[in-house]
Design brief:
There is one protein chain. With about 325 residues, this protein is α/β, with parallel strands linked by helices. It has 2 domains: about 240 residues, TIM Barrel (Alpha-Beta Barrel); about 80 residues, Non-ribosomal Peptide Synthetase Peptidyl Carrier Protein, Chain A, CATH 1.10.1200. The chain has 14 helices and 13 strands. Strands 3-4-6-7-8-9-10-11 form an 8-stranded parallel β-barrel, surrounded by 5 helices. A two-stranded antiparallel sheet has the order 1-2. The longest helix is centred in the C-terminal third of the chain and has 19 residues.
């Protein structure tokens, strides 16, 4: 049984990665429904929280059905991160996670996210300050290093464990790689197999099939896998991996009806959480992913992304479901 303090996550947990503008409550609800064992919020700016920035505060919304749930924070100032952790504890998540992995320029080049990988002593001091400021378990999400010359993650993980973090998730790329190339899990395996490491070690990067999940589980010995991009538009990935790990067989792929149903659920939850205008607008980025790989779909995708009328959008989705024989997916009729 993998545990973060007293939080039981199962024998080989699957985690939903924190993804900006993706891992909001509506998306998390679907991932939970389809098998995610532990989820994290979108990352939240420590400075934004302290300034009472509306967007940052909204990201603190968590719901009982999501548990266990971690709130992730990022920032470059130790005192601000410490204050943010104190604020977050009052919202009663299960875990506080520190983002030391975001590679985007506006974050990393200000010394936050993966930017702190250029200053490991500061990373350790910041982590220690956060651990001391809260009674909640603190976890870390990070990368192998800043670039190929600074892949210090094996030593860094040990140091972070020694000052009190209770789990670590490692993305198998450097900051310089961004999301390009293939994730290298070799050092993730070295962190896990370091005899001094006692906390759970989760691997992240490029897991997009049940076969790959099983291969990496066996090859690198990690305690669980964190899944990000493969879940966008495809929350079924969690249950598919679990089923394959347990039985060696594949679950039946979601039908077009399943995809339409999930899309409508996602849309309705987005509207309830964000209001109709914002909920409709922010769903537009998801339609392509829910119906990815379906032939002859461009006309209907354009209808979905161009409409601001909820009734029209639902009618289009219902039409797609009712006329599923018009479409093909992965070279087979749905």
């Amino acid at each position: 049984m993998v545990k973060i303090r007293d939080i039981e996550l199962g024998e080989f947990p699957l985690l939903l990665a924190p993804m900006e503008d993706v891992s909001d409550p509506p998306f998390r609800a679907l991932c939970k429904k389809y098998g995610a064992d532990l989820m994290y919020t979108e990352f939240i700016s420590s400075e934004g929280l302290i300034r009472d920035a509306a967007k940052s505060l909204q990201k603190l919304d968590i719901y009982e059905y999501e548990r266990p749930i971690g709130i992730q924070i990022f920032g470059s100032e130790i005192e601000s991160m410490k204050q943010a952790a104190i604020m977050i504890e009052k919202t009663n998540p299960d875990i506080i996670d520190i983002n030391y992995g975001c590679p985007v320029k506006k974050v990393a080049c200000k010394g936050a996210g993966a930017g702190i990988l250029q200053d490991i002593p500061k990373m350790v001091r910041m982590t220690q300050a956060i651990v001391k400021s809260t009674n909640l378990p603190v976890t870390v999400k990070t990368r192998l290093g800043w670039d190929d010359d600074t892949k210090f993650v094996v030593d860094t993980a040990e140091r972070l464990q020694d000052i009190g973090i209770e789990a670590i998730s490692i993305h198998g790329r450097t900051r310089k790689q961004m999301y390009k190339g293939e994730a290298d899990w070799t050092l993730i395996g070295e962190v896990k197999n370091n005899p001094r490491m006692k906390i759970p070690v989760f691997g992240n990067g490029d897991i997009d099939t049940p076969e790959k999940a099983l291969e990496y589980k066996n090859r690198y010995g990690v305690d669980g896998i964190m899944i990000g991009r493969a879940s966008i538009g495809y929350p079924w990935v969690f249950n598919e991996i679990k089923h394959f790990l347990k039985t060696g067989t594949h679950l039946e792929k979601p039908s077009l009806k399943d995809r339409v149903g999930a899309t409508i659920d996602h849309l309705n939850m987005s509207i309830r959480w964000k209001g109709e205008v914002l909920g409709i607008n922010e769903m537009k980025r998801h339609y392509t992913n829910y119906f990815k790989g379906i032939s002859h779909f461009k006309e209907y995708r354009m209808k979905l992304v161009s409409s601001q009328d909820l009734t029209e959008i639902i009618e289009t989705l219902n039409y797609i479901e009712e006329n599923s024989d018009m479409f093909q997916f992965a070279n087979e009729e749905i």
